[in-house]
Amino acid sequence: MYDFDSLVEEVLKNKPELSRNSLMEQIEEKKNTVGSGYLTNQGALFLIAGELGVRLERITSTDLGLKDLYVGANDITVVARVFAIYPISEYERKDGSGRGRYRRIGLFDSDNVARVTLWDDRVEDVDQTGITLDSPVRVVSGYVKQGFDGKPNLNLGRRGRIEKIEDAELSSKLDSIEKAVRTLGNLDEDKQIIALDAILASEARRSDFTRSDGSPGSLLQFRVSDGKERREERIAIWSPSIPTPSFKLGQRIRVTNLKVRKSSQGEPELHGDAGTVVIPLEAEVHARAFRVVSTEFGETTLFLVVDDARRVHQLELVGDAAGRAISVKPGDVVRVTPDEDLKERLVCRRSGSFEILQGDSMPELESLGVKIDALKSCAWPVLVESIALSRGAVQEVHLKDGSVAKKGEIVIGDDTAEVKLIAWREQAGKVMSIEPGERVRVVGANPQLSPMGILTLQVSGFTRIERLRGR
Hints:
This protein has helices spanning 4-14, 20-34, 41-52, 125-128, 168-172, 177-180, 320-323; strands at 76-85, 89-92, 99-109, 112-119, 136-146, 152-156, 161-164, 181-182, 192-200, 205-210, 216-225, 232-238, 252-262, 268-272, 278-280, 288-296, 301-306, 312-317, 333-336, 340-342, 345-348, 354-357, 382-388, 393-398, 404-413, 418-424, 439-449, 455-458, 464-467. The protein is mainly beta. It folds into 4 domains: 1-61, no CATH class; 177-280, CATH 2.40.50.140; 288-357, CATH 2.40.50.140; 369-467, CATH 2.40.50.140. The strands form 4 sheets. The chain has a 7-stranded mixed sheet. Strands 1-3-4-6-5 form a 5-stranded mixed β-barrel. A hairpin with a 2-residue loop joins strand 20 and strand 21. The longest helix is centred in the N-terminal third of the chain and has 15 residues, at 20-34. Mean pLDDT is 83; it is low at 58-62.
């Protein structure tokens, strides 16, 4: 980002009649005038510098955030993630030299959104570089003009380019779409919705029409619900570039690139456009049986459960489903039809999504563990019954990037082999105070093979380590 102090000094050098205090007051005033949440100090300073005739471009750094964009900026580079990709469109060149092409992309970082328009030869960059929804990208040598909505719009011409970021460390610093997902209970009118997760509540219907200028148009409509409070909203996608969804009613879906509008009856509804995509979040959901390993009751009810394939899952119970689970204890068998299936994490909200089974043929808990010599064939969280062979210890280790992290480790074994159980950072305390000879049940740890073929068990955030004294 910018070196703010250097920017301030540049303005003061060019405008010696200004004091630093006066400039800082102008920055605060500009932020208040534009509106809370729209400008950083740097962004406000750029606007003020432009009004004063001071050019700051030469001392900016390489990668900017979307919040720092301002109309008139030139030759800038931005990093962000993609939440919308529009089809290629055509336009008539003003000089009469024929037709050109353009393509728009929606970008976001944290709570900020912006559009970038790729012109002519640049429209192919998206497909050629493999840019897709949620891709981290760098827009190089762009310029900013005012869009039709009055907001800064980033543009890319012949001198610029857009590239997919392959650097894992940089990518990890950019929030993914998953972190930007909204639900029907937290929507703000006129604010850009990067992604909405909901349940399909009606069949999708497409209709064609003719606009007032004689051009053809189309509209895709369907309703969605939140699955909890029986709240439903209408989604209208104008000029959709996607086929009519053929998902089943009740299926969870994700809809990207939406805005909240008022219908002609004054009711809120969600509008999309040619850059909107509808994504199924899961295939058809089937009921599954699990043996409960551990229970945790609080604001959210959390169980660790294991299936007959010896895979451990975290089961989160909310609302009506949590009310049905208050009598559950370790060892019970439950049937789950999850409202959300996120690999090893299952979420139940409806009362009908969870039930306790009696007399089920599910194997007993002791039979659902994995022997240590079989861990190499497991690519999922497991349950291991073992004996502690060393004392749990935590130490600080220096990582390759120069940082320091806590590492807890202990050696455990059973009648087939031994393995080192490792816990990093805030999980390190889970192995503390375990003494040699204690029986321990490790639930939800992940087997991991090093490049040298060395097996370890890695503790995750939902791993539970139970000390089984006296058993």
